[in-house]
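Why show two proteins at once? Because comparison is the fastest way to build intuition. When a single record is shown, students tend to memorize it. When two are placed side by side, the eye starts asking what differs. So, the first record is below.
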Amino acid sequence: MNLFRISLFAAFLFSTVLSANAANLGEVKSDMKKRQPAIEALWAEGKIGENNKGYIEARAALEGEERKLVQAENADRRVVYQAIARSTQTTPEKVGVQRAAQISKRAAKGLWLQDAEGNWYRK
């Protein structure tokens, strides 16, 4: 997944949560942007993939800093999904599943993805 696609992803997420706490979401957006190159490197190495719930999941052993990176990204995604859920009157789980479907359609070749049944495949 290239930086342009990630930027579109971030723009989509943050444009749909206008009624949420702007200061907190601004920090989340900034944090996500800062860690994006490291996330992309882990994708490229095949160490992580996108699960069917809209979160990153380890596909190989991760070192301490890599684990922290994935945990931080997933925590920020959780915040965004909760904000979207509040503004669209749905659940964060449904938002995550919808986002996972979008990611799988737009994912770059080679990215690990999880289908609806929980099976992993490489695009």
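Second record. Ask yourself what differs from the first in the token line.
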Amino acid sequence: MKVNYRLFVGLAIFYAIMTFVYYYVGGEPLGISCLLLSSLLAAMVGFYLWFTNKRIGTTLPEDNFEG
């Protein structure tokens, strides 16, 4: 799950950066709100995966390098 939550947190950061770029370029309000909501959704999924990984407390098979 480590790769999963890192992926979604990375997507949230990417969408947030693209939101600011799109805002400063002069994008339309609907596009700005869609990018912002996409960023928040990716952050929410990333937080859920991080929290679940923290509560499990063990190494999952997909995170084991010797598996």
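One difference worth noting in the second protein: DSSP finds two helices and no strands in the chain.
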